[in-house]
Structure prediction request, 243 residues.
Amino acid sequence: MSIQEVHFEEGILDEAKEVIQRYHLTGELNGFEIIEANSAHGWVYRIIGFPYVIKIYKPEGKHNQDHFTLSQLQHCPYTPRLFAYVDNKFVVMEYIEGLTIQEYLKEFKALPAQFYDQLRLALYEITYTANIVLQDMKVDSSVLIHRTTSHIHLLDFGVVDFTRNLPDAVAIDWAHRAFMSFLTSMGDNQLFRNMPAAERTFQEALITNKDKDVDYFLKTECSDIVNILKDRKETETKRRSGY
Prediction:
């Protein structure tokens, strides 16, 4: 049986290509440092000496979702860049420095002031620029917060829906529902026990956003999103079209 070639994206370092190719051909894990062992989909390793991680999939099942999703979001500031992949075997992504929501709360006793606005706009942007809605976000693994800048990244793409043929207002409404679903999961996980200030900010985010629905986005014509993201959407569309 022939071995699939590794698909490398623009910008990956040549020295890292050698390490990745060696693993692909031999299965040798020298130069990898385990980050996440035996998750639902496989294993995640840091590629030592390089700003990349490799997610190695379990042999059963199909695992094309990560690289397809990331390939649509190469210029999104809220997702890691894709650097290499082999269908159903592994994906190589940008290494993101950060804390999970639980880790950040344990260290700082509150989430960053702009956390909820960042998360909401991140989900809007992913939908508006790439026609993708993230539907399976996990409170304990899907969001990383940088310790010093407080910038967030979204990881661990599971179930996604596609909105390419939907009006902007309907697509953004789907993204908003995903955002509210994630907030509900945060509440269900009782993250803010003995943290009254963090709990108040969380409740304020729930109240501020709970009444936004498809009628709201139709009425406003998504102006608050479109004005911010229009240029980035055009850039992504041109990139995917090869211009």
In short: The mean pLDDT is 88. Strands lie at 7-8, 32-36, 42-47, 52-57, 82-86, 90-94, 132-134, 143-145, 152-154, 160-162. Residues 2 and 25 are 11 Å apart (CA to CA).
